[in-house]
Design brief:
The chain has 10 helices and 14 strands. It is α/β, with parallel strands linked by helices and about 300 residues long. The longest helix is centred in the N-terminal third of the chain and has 26 residues.
Amino acid sequence: MRGNEFADMRAFVTVAEQGSFARAAEQLAVSPSALSQTIRTLEERLDVRLFNRTTRSVSLTEAGRQLLTRMQPLMQEFDAAFEEVTQLRGKPSGTLRICAPQMAIIHLLQPMLGVFQEQYPDIVLDLTSDESLGDIVARGFDAGIRLGEHVDQDMVAVRVGPDLRQIAVASPDYLEKNGVPQTPHDLQHHRCINWRRAGQASVYNWEFAKDGEWFDVSVKGTLIVNDCAVALQAAVDGLGITVWTEDWMASHLESGRLVPLLSEWSPFFPGFYLYHTSRTRMPATLRAFIDVVKRVSMGNTPA
């Protein structure tokens, strides 16, 4: 395969995987117009249309789907081969794109960034804060971080954080005026601060467990937010009861600004997992990242 043919195939596979000329152009570091011309030239050389294009969407034709089926594994093998050779020169290098919720970035990744940069100065770490549960592959990420319960079964998942516990909390002032709930179902008689995940219409149902059995409670209140940190501050301000991860509000609990509630109904659960597609070999950059995150988050290396 000549150099220009390899570049054309790389362009074709990237557009097909991204489903967008704009996203593919960004990943390939070229302009959308240049990428569009590359694909037109490829289609003219093959004398077949590979994409159906409209002003709003890009989709593969039958010929395009057949070509992608054959070329995608070859491109992955090319990447793996080049990566193996690159590692002979020293430490991993290149750009690693990670998508994670804001709180995972703050509490899990922030403490390891200095360690990671010191050990792997040639890796560019591109972090995107995102609370949605979208397809990381289609959006051009190498890996994502989510709570284990939200990782799709067809993904390779690696645990990168300790067990977590989510508890209900309220300010002393609120509890003095409204009383203390004794069971999760008592929350139905309280003002609760709800939140919804980005991209979802419904609010989050609070989760509790008793004797190993988990159950949801739908609570009501006069405030709904899409940022847990906002819900937490509202609870500190006495606006109602909310739920959040215990470790992430330790300063409020220790100072007494917030009071833990229903602790006996709030067991620990597995925390964050890094996940990536099983269709490709794990890049050396990602292996290095996972190694540092696990060592720092599990307490084996000082952050």
